[in-house]
TrEMBL record:
It is found in: Membrane. Its main location: membrane. This is P-type ATPase A domain-containing protein. It is a multi-pass membrane protein. The keyword Lyase does not apply. Residues 219-313 form the P-type ATPase A domain. The chain crosses the membrane at residues 87-107, 154-181, 336-357, 369-393, 710-729, 766-793, 849-869, 881-901, 967-994, 1006-1030. It comes from Ostreococcus mediterraneus. SUPFAM superfamilies: Calcium ATPase, transduction domain A, Calcium ATPase, transmembrane domain M, HAD-like.
Length: 1033
């Protein structure tokens, strides 16, 4: 309801004593997007928090402080906080409301004595008061604060409608509004929490303790030194021991060992990745095999999961344009609705002659309009931004706010850096050319094992990308033993050198390495230059007394880059299935790189990028200029905005200048991340450009869902408020449609989590949402259709058709009464439970329906007997009551006996056997194969006997007072509803017992025998009470 909608619209978390109180101040509760343009995440979060606190302190007034003092002293705050959004309280409120409604009906149609009528009235009033206390206390407390600060918002409007029902003497209707509000508020709370994504779950992936270990002089962990300490107390630089099956407690770098590690909590990718010496690893990563020693790089507060959570929460507080627009008109809209309400209440009796009080009166219509016109669904519309940000955060994509999603939906040009975006950013050794033969011979690295062995020993321990590429190329190869490098030196800017068995070796630039070739250095240099092309990344290995070798390296193309580039270029990421021929949504791709032209051209060809869109050898200033030029060139197009994708510090100016800066980062603390609006958290060779199509798809879907939400909200307000104002909709239906539309908006938003997130809604939440929505839709459809047809026919003056309408209404009432009749008595539960022990749920439902059909037969027989003999026999209600008790008792005795007969083997199959068949065959096996005719007959007979009781006549009395056609319609649908409800009731009980059977195979037999025993016991008790004249039912 309002609380949740306000939290979405304003972005402020629930603070203090009441959700609505905080929302009243919510318009200042988060820093606006115009004010918060800082690229630094920590500054952004801190600034938002300071503004929130400052605004809250500024708006507090004396009346609020007085309310605080009173409510705190009386404990009202604690009570309201406990009741607000509590699922148990919502269920209890519904139960109390149903009891109050039944008692209210009995009070008017019970036909009992004065004592019974007074008892029903007392129960109805007591339950209604409890509903107001449980569901109404939080509402009234929140509205008190709203009024204290002068806020006239939707919360105030809806609560005034509840108070209006009390003034009109319709307390039951007000109670219905309160339980609807409480239920809707609970469901919307769940939806909003789900949409935000349970970011606290990130902390659940991080251990609270760490196994600290010390390393020996040779870098091997000393197992005896392992000790467990709290992760929060571990200092940066401490070495941590992580064995297989454990999680990494802090961000760190691997200093010993290697293992396959799962970082699904960061990237969303389920496949583990290999982590070796020198690789960074985030907190919460699961070590699936091997042993790792990790040196901590950050504290627990600055770990990757912590920063992701802070970034996402900050993004969800950053309000998009639509939220600010709704806020700007929300206050004026609420005041306008309140003005229309009072004008209608005052002028309608004078101008239109409508009575002021009573159902259908001006006051009643005004409050119905007030409830229906509240823009809860409209305020819930921006929930789609929260859902989108939360969904992508689960997949390793962090979006700074709704403004970024709006901008992404309008991007027409995407500028791509090459390294780390189109490529993986990791070097690989592509070939080795040897000059130790007559003619230079180029081959794969595996064909030059001795050269690889020298290079590996020289690069061991280095963190340079070339060293990593050499190490990777030697994996799985059987290298010759050339010994360990002695007299090891690193010559910065040139390479490395070492001594192998008295021979000096160098690996690095050609000038540096070829100095070892002596007099032959010039010839070797010429040979190497002839084999080298412009822009190639090469290194030369030279060993004294041997011919040199030329190593070629290249950046590795991201395997998913060509497909992703095609999706962006063609606009496939934005098109729906019906727009496949529409190419207008394609994005223009540019490559902006500081690398040489040869390397850039090769990668552009790999992703089919046009040569005129490739810009190489750029400085950061030149990248910035090209971004501005692209924006100027596209400013009049349908998609005028420009996005920049990069991963290095040299990309920071272009990232900041672009409308949307997208940074490729291994952690949220990388340097390029501070200048970006979107962070793509990569894992090794995945991520980068491969995540961009999904990002643009999400932005486009977010805008589409937002438009759907706003359209649905506006239609629901107009479609329910105007009929309510003209008296076509009762107050309860207006509220039902209003809350149903709000929930549908929330459901429509949260479906993005199912499409893009990894955690769909729970079955319970989904079932509750659909049930509530279907209930709203059915009630609205029935009311609208019946009223529309009635008005149409009345205008045509077709009296015969009016009879059809009244018959239709009688049929609807009969169907509802038949369904509810099944749930009203414990005798039905006792009678149907033994029938649930059977082969399959479908056949259980058929047996329940058969029993219901027999029940209807008994009712018809008793009704006929009553009509024939009512004028000939004196009606002694005491005798009739005893007869009814005897009939119920006899029925329960027979049913209990049948249950024991089947449970103990009197039937043709055992229970376990029947259930094994039920799962494998379902309803394909015919009934006679499992249920013999005697059992079926007795099921029908017991239902018939059960129907021969005076209580059954009670629900049929309305039909006796109706005209013939309406009476037939009522009875026919009453009997159909009873049969359907009895079968469904039995099906549900059987499904519950089947679920319990999975945990305990004997549980169902216990239920069968227990329910049969209960039926027998109650049956005997009722028969004895009938004989001795005791009134038990």
């Amino acid at each position: 309801r309002v609380g949740v909608a306000g939290a979405v619209a304003h972005g402020s978390p629930f603070d203090g004593h009441s959700h609505s109180h905080s929302h009243g101040r919510g318009s200042h509760g988060a820093a606006s997007a115009d004010e918060i343009m800082s690229s630094d995440e920590d500054e952004f979060v801190a600034k938002a928090g300071m503004m929130m606190r400052a605004s809250q302190g500024k708006e507090a007034n004396e009346l609020e402080r007085a309310l605080d003092a009173v409510f705190n002293a009386t404990g009202v705050h604690r009570v309201a906080d406990f009741l607000r959004g509590n699922a148990f309280v919502a269920v209890v409120s519904w139960v109390l409301f149903v009891v109050a409604g039944i008692s209210h009906i009995l009070m008017h149609v019970g036909g009992g004595g004065v004592v019974e009528t007074q008892t029903a009235a007392t129960v109805s009033k007591a339950c209604t008061i409890l509903v107001y206390a449980l569901a109404g206390t939080p509402e009234f407390v929140d509205v008190t604060y709203e009024l204290a600060v002068g806020n006239v918002n939707i919360h105030v409007l809806t609560t005034l409608a509840v108070l209006g029902t009390v003034l009109l003497g319709c307390a039951m209707e007000g109670a219905l509004l309160l339980v609807l509000f409480a239920s809707a508020h609970f469901v919307e709370d769940r939806l909003t929490s789900h949409a935000r994504g349970d970011l606290k779950a990130l902390w659940g992936t991080v251990p609270t303790t760490a196994d600290v270990v010390t390393l020996n002089s040779d870098g091997v962990p000393d197992i005896a030194s392992i000790r467990e300490v709290p992760a929060a107390d571990v200092e940066i630089g401490t070495t941590i021991f992580v064995k297989a099956g454990q999680q990494v407690p802090l961000d760190g770098v691997v200093v010993h060992g290697s293992a396959l590690v799962s970082i699904q909590h960061i990237t969303g990718e389920a496949l583990p990745v290999m982590k070796r010496y020198g690789d960074e690893i985030p907190a919460g990563a699961m070590n699936t095999d091997g042993v790792l020693v990790v040196k901590s790089l950050r504290s627990s507060e600055e770990s990757t999961p912590a920063r992701i959570a802070r970034l996402t929460e900050a993004a969800q507080r950053r309000r998009p344009k639509v939220s600010r627009l709704i806020d700007s008109i929300g206050d004026r809209y609420s005041k306008a609705i309140l003005a229309i309400t009072f004008i209608t209440m005052i002028l309608a009796p004078v101008v239109l002659g409508i009575p002021f009080l009573g159902r259908g009166g001006a006051m009643y219509r005004s409050f119905a309009f007030l409830s229906a016109a509240a823009p809860c669904a409209l305020l819930m519309s921006p929930l789609v931004y929260v859902a989108a940000i939360g969904a992508m955060a689960r997949r390793g994509v962090l979006i700074r706010g709704g403004l970024t999603l709006d901008a992404l939906a309008e991007v027409g040009t995407v500028a791509l850096d090459k390294t780390g975006t189109i490529t993986t950013g990791q070097m690989s050794c592509t070939s080795i050319t040897r000059f130790d033969c007559e003619k230079p011979e180029q081959g794969a690295p595996g064909a030059s094992l001795k050269s690889l062995a020298y290079a590996l020993n020289l690069e061991r321990g280095s963190s340079h990308p070339i060293a990593a590429a050499v190490t990777a190329s030697t994996r799985g190869l059987d290298l010759p033993d050339v010994g360990n490098a002695g007299d090891y030196k690193v010559v910065h800017g040139s390479g490395v050198e070492g001594l192998f068995a008295g021979k000096r070796a160098r690996f690095g630039t050609a000038e540096f390495a070829l100095e070892l070739c002596g007099d032959d250095a010039e010839n070797c240099s010429l040979a190497i230059n002839s084999e080298t092309r412009d822009g190639e990344i090469v290194a030369v290995l030279a060993v004294e007394g041997e011919r040199p070798a030329l190593f070629r390296f290249s950046d590795t193309l991201n395997s998913k880059a060509p497909e992703a580039a095609e999706s962006l270029r063609s606009g496939r990421c934005r098109r729906r299935w019906w727009e496949m021929a529409d190419n207008s949504k394609g994005l223009e791709l540019l490559m902006l790189t500081g690398d040489n032209q040869t390397s850039a051209k090769a990668m552009a060809e790999a992703i089919k990028l046009a040569p005129e869109n490739v810009y190489s050898g750029l400085t950061p200033d030149q990248k910035l200029k090209l971004i501005e030029d692209a924006r100027e060139r596209k400013k009049t197009s349908k998609y005028p905005r420009v996005a920049m994708v990069g991963d290095g510090i040299n990309d920071a100016p272009a990232l900041a200048a672009a409308d949307v800066g997208v940074a490729i980062a291994s952690t949220p603390s990388d340097a390029a991340a501070s200048a970006a609006d979107v962070l793509l958290l990569t894992k090794d060779d995945d991520g980068g450009i491969s995540q961009l199509p999904e990002l643009f798809t999400l932005a486009d879907r977010t805008r589409t869902v937002l438009r759907q939400n706003i359209a649905l909200a506006v239609i629901s307000i107009i479609g329910s408020a105007i009929p309510a104002l003209f008296g076509a909709f009762p107050l309860w239906l207006a509220v039902l449609l209003h809350e149903g539309a709000t929930l549908m908006v929330a459901m429509n938003s949260v479906r993005l989590l199912v499409t893009f997130g990894r955690q769909p809604l729970s079955k319970t939440t989904t079932l509750a949402l659909w049930a509530f929505t279907v209930f709203c839709a059915l009630g609205a459809a029935y009311t609208v259709c019946s009223e529309a047809v009635a008005i149409f026919i009345s205008q045509l003056h077709l009296s015969n058709w009016m009879g059809v309408i009244t018959a239709f209404k009688s049929a609807w009432a009969g169907l509802l009464a038949g369904c509810l009749h099944t749930l009203t008595g414990p005798d039905h539960l006792a009678a149907l439970t033994p029938l649930t022990v059977g082969p399959s749920r479908a056949q259980n439902a058929l047996m329940g329906a058969l029993w219901g059909f027999g029940h209807n037969t008994g009712q018809i027989l008793f009704g006929c007997i009553f009509i024939l003999l009512r004028d000939r026999l004196p009606l002694n209600m005491e005798i009739i009551g005893q007869f009814g008790q005897g009939i119920v008792g006899l029925t329960l005795i027979i049913i209990g006996a049948m249950g024991f007969w089947e449970s103990f083997g009197g039937h043709s199959h055992s229970h376990s056997h029947s259930h094994s068949h039920s799962h494998s065959h379902g309803t394909d096996m015919p009934m006679p194969a499992k249920r013999d005719s005697s059992f079926i007959s007795w099921t029908y007979i017991t239902g018939t006997i059960h129907g021969l009781q005076p209580d059954s006549l009670f629900l049929l009395l309305p039909a006796l007072a109706l005209p013939r056609v309406e009476a037939i319609s009522f009875l026919a649908t009453f009997f159909i509803g009873t049969i359907i409800a009895m079968g469904t009731y039995t099906y549900c009980i059987g499904a519950g017992t089947a679920a319990l059977e999975k945990n305990n195979p004997k549980f169902v037999s216990y239920i069968a025998r227990g329910s049969s025993g209960v039926a027998l016991a109650f049956g005997v008790l009722f028969v004895i009470s009938a004989v001795f004249g005791l009134d038990l039912i």
